[in-house]
């Protein structure tokens, strides 16, 4: 059994989708960020960084209980545990990991900053908006070009897609017209109708 700690966010949705895709047994624990659940001593033992998501696998890969935090690390762990969505051949494996790191280091942080300065900043910061929206547009362009030559980001459905989908699906928040990125639009539609994704999106 896996204890899954999460809240409503793209990073939490990544792990939700992966758990549903793999069929691993899990129990969902909601972390109320506004009430500071993520800062309690109990939660900090699971994730010292005080963020979501995190998991505790009561039957870890070595047989002992293990806590994993950071969404990319969790996806890698669940892929290894389930034997799914991460190739065993070295070249394919590193293609997937490269695109996973692209999401972790590029898409996630940049889109989060764009969303903050567009929608949540207490006062307008035009330079920051221009900087992060421009980078968001560039990143969408990178993915769109990649998807012009492959059905999925790493060539086949993998944790690279699972990591990127929750962020790229909310393109409206960044003022982007998905018609400008037709390959991303096609990819979003293909992933959104997967049963595991539909189940994940239906969770309140």
Describe it.
The protein folds into 2 domains: 2-84, 3-Layer(aba) Sandwich (Glutaredoxin), CATH 3.40.30; 90-194, Glutathione S-transferase Yfyf (Class Pi), Chain A, domain 2. The protein contains 8 helices and 4 strands; from the N terminus they run βαβαββαααααα. By secondary structure, the chain is α+β, with helices and mostly antiparallel strands. The protein starts with a strand and ends with a helix. The protein is globular and about 50 Å long. The protein has helices at residues 10-22, 41-46, 71-82, 90-119, 126-147, 159-168, 182-192, 195-202, and strands at residues 2-6, 26-30, 54-57, 66-69. The model has no long low-confidence stretch (mean pLDDT 96). Helix 1 (10-22) packs parallel to helix 3 (71-82), helix 1 packs antiparallel against helix 6 (159-168) and helix 4 (90-119) runs parallel beside helix 6 (159-168). Strands 2-1-3-4 form a 4-stranded mixed sheet, with helices on one face. InterPro entries: Glutathione-S-Trfase_C-like, Glutathione-S-Trfase_C_sf, Glutathione_S-Trfase, Glutathione_S-Trfase_N, GST_C, Thioredoxin-like_sf. Residues 1-86 form the GST N-terminal domain. This is Glutathione S-transferase N-terminal domain-containing protein. Residues 89-204 form the GST C-terminal domain.
- Structural domain count: 2
Radius of gyration, rounded? Answer: 17 Å
Mean of the pLDDT scores? 96
SS element count, helices: 8
Number of strands: 4
What share of residues is helical?
Answer: 40-55%
Strand order, biggest sheet?
Answer: 2-1-3-4
The name of the CATH topology of the largest domain is: Glutathione S-transferase Yfyf (Class Pi), Chain A, domain 2
Named at the architecture level, the CATH assignment of the largest domain is Up-down Bundle
Could you tell me the strand content as a percent range?
Answer: 5-15%
Order of helices and strands: EHEHEEHHHHHH
Shape descriptor reads globular
Q: What ranges have pLDDT less than 50 throughout 5 or more consecutive residues?
A: none
Distance between the termini: 22 Å
The CATH first-level class of the largest domain comes to Mainly Alpha
Major β-sheet annotation? 4 strands, mixed
Domain GST C-terminal: 89-204
Domain GST N-terminal: 1-86
Organism: Candidatus Sulfomarinibacter kjeldsenii
Pfam family, one: GST_N_2
């Amino acid at each position: 059994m896996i204890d899954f700690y999460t809240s409503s966010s793209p990073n939490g949705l990544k792990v939700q989708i992966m758990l549903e895709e793999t069929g691993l047994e899990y129990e969902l624990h909601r972390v109320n960020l506004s009430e500071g659940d993520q800062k309690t001593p109990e939660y900090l033992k699971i994730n010292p960084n005080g963020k979501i998501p995190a998991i505790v696998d009561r039957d870890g890969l070595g047989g002992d209980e293990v806590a994993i935090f950071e969404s990319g690390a969790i996806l890698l762990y669940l892929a290894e545990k389930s034997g799914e969505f991460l190739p065993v051949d070295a070249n394919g494996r590193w293609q997937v990991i490269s695109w996973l790191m692209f999401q972790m280091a590029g898409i996630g942080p940049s889109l989060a900053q764009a969303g903050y300065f567009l929608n949540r900043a207490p006062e307008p910061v035009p330079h920051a908006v221009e900087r992060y929206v421009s980078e968001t547009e560039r990143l969408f362009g990178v993915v769109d070009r990649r998807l012009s030559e492959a059905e999925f980001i790493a060539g086949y459905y993998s944790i690279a897609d699972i990591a990127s989908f929750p962020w790229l699906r909310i393109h409206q928040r960044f003022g982007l017209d998905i018609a400008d990125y037709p390959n991303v639009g096609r990819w979003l539609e293909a992933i959104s109708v997967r049963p595991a994704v539909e189940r994940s999106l239906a969770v309140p």
